[in-house]
Amino acid sequence: MTRRQRPRRHVWAAALLAAALCVPAAVADNVAEAAVPKLDQIRVALYITNGKTYNSTVPAVTLSSPAGLDAGVRTPSGVRVWTVVPPGVQARFAADGYNVLLLETADANAAKTLAQALAATQDKPAVFRAAKLGQTVYRVYAGPYATKEEATAAKQRIAAGGAAAALPKGGTATVTGPHRWSAGTFPSEAAARQQADALRLKGVDAWVVATEAAGQLAFAVWIGEAADAEQASAAKAQAEKLVPGLALLPVDAAAPYLLQREDVTGPTAAVTHYAFNPNEQKVWISPKDGVTAVAEKGGRQYRGNLELSRHNGKLAVVNELPFEQYLVSVVGGEMSDGWPAEALKAQAVSARTFALAQGLKYQIAHVSDSTADQAYYGVEEEGRNVSAAVAATAGEVLTANGQLITPFFYSNGGGMTGDPVEVWGQPIPYLKATASPDEGAQAGKPQWYKVAMANGTVGYVRSDLVTDSGTTNAAGLKVVTVKGTGVSIRPAPYVDNANNAAIATVNAGERLVALGTTPESNAYGWVRGPYKADVLLKELNGALASPIAGPLSTLAVSKRGPSGRAVELEANGRPVPVAKPDQYRGALFDAPSTRFEIEETGRYTVLGANGQTRSLPESAGALYAVGASGTASALAKPGMIVLGGGGAVRDITKDPQFRLVGKGYGHGLGMSQWGARGLAEAGTDYKGILHHYYTGVTIAKD
């Protein structure tokens, strides 16, 4: 489920399949009754960290719903609603804790500037607006942190980091915390707010808090934000000095609460910020119309309820919803509602099996919402066809020897699925390398020319942006003419301004030498690079336990597995060690798969007229070609193009550079989603698809 590219939402003609891909109907229709685990409600972590396999969290989460939200606490005895968020209004929630107070100012712009400087760091900002002594003030915090020690370390990190320039000169950052005093409990929120306003007029920091008294909802006013007992005592003494006769009582550290502040961190209107007790409290969010939007997830909407808590020192956001409803979104996210019904059914059975096989993987959640498990994007990926596929396969799972399997799947096998040993270094009985009809991912993609410019620059241009000039150069290579203005020449044949930015632009009328054509990079076939040797070496060494001694001169696939995937690379003639072959992907700028070739533009062989050869790079110095005029020029100058005896054209460079040319997208184990589509379009039903990719399994039903 890792590193998949989501299938495209297009419908293309089915690929013709070899007879070897067909699965006998008698095998495919084998559905057995078995003791299958049942799960009525699934818990999906939208944000969680377990310190091992998955770490994704935010300091706060911003929620809303078209019809409003109920927010309260969840305990073993049930759910109690404490407050209502109005329809369409956002509210922000965070685990209370320790923070670093960096600035208190009446200047909103100064607070905004500091918050923007912090936003790019690991110490995320929060800006609260409050009244104090009759004046509006803005407080900029970093945090929250689980402990005082973490906050203290953050304070030092901020002072030495990039945001330091935005800190007020002569200012002193202060570590704050959750140690507070109660200035009374009141029968209504309005009464509590009146008391808090009165205290603020006298210079006392005071907040309205929803909590419980004698098991019933109550509203209190709390003061202070001390990081330890000593600071708490000082805050109490200061408040009593400012308000003679003020009666303050210790706050029960175990009591659940929602402490309210006015949050103006974001660019939009102020929102109410609720800080909850991180010590075992679970905040329960129920939408009144069935969906909750999460701003930090791009506004995605989720069915069911949300549970907020602190887990492993960080905010955890868990979406609890009916299991089969969850599967509808997963199937839509992993494939597409417009895909063939039998492919969707195969995905539904695989997704159901995978989720059940995880157990309570994250202690408080069964799965995460990311491709670390399986993609879950909430309501936006639901559809009529995926819903029908889930319903048609209700309760069906994949088993081997009476046990649930882990049905790995991914985007595209590049024509052949992987063998577990060549991917993860260990056998898995129900997974074997097998042919996979994955070409559909490439259908309809535009062609790109590999071209050479007059100055020697080599790159790719989309074919519809040039036209055939009808002429060739002296070597017989086609010359094309640019049609538009500001046309991009890119290192590889795809558009991605972040990772594949233009290396040159050309304009109408300019002539380019065409070195060949290739489809636009896609899940089936792709090109990445070229990478300069020093850049690639840095990337490799950042991922390897044993760094490669530089400089990097050569890099080649030295061993391949049954499906053609790389199981060993050699750099400078020595094996590049990894724990599992699939880790080569991460070491090579997240290569789509390990089924690739490496083109080395700095290594080539020249064959002389007398049969002698000379290979580059070499220590003897540069190799020269002598032209008809007798003028010598370095053969390996930038932009040199060579034409092989068989007519193949290559670009070569003086310094080592490396281009990856591969097939497939993902780890390659189990079901290829594009392959499932290809099989379905060729007439194979979902049971046949599953038996094709998972060897010797049984489709069981509860």
From TrEMBL:
Q: Which residues form the signal peptide?
A: 1-28
Q: Does the keyword Protein biosynthesis apply?
A: no
Is the Signal keyword given for this protein?
yes
What Gene3D superfamilies does UniProt report for this protein, alphabetically? Sporulation related repeat
GO CC annotations on file: outer membrane-bounded periplasmic space
Q: Which GO terms describe its biological process?
A: sporulation resulting in formation of a cellular spore
- Tell me the protein's name: SPOR domain-containing protein
Q: Say which species the protein is native to.
A: Paenibacillus flagellatus
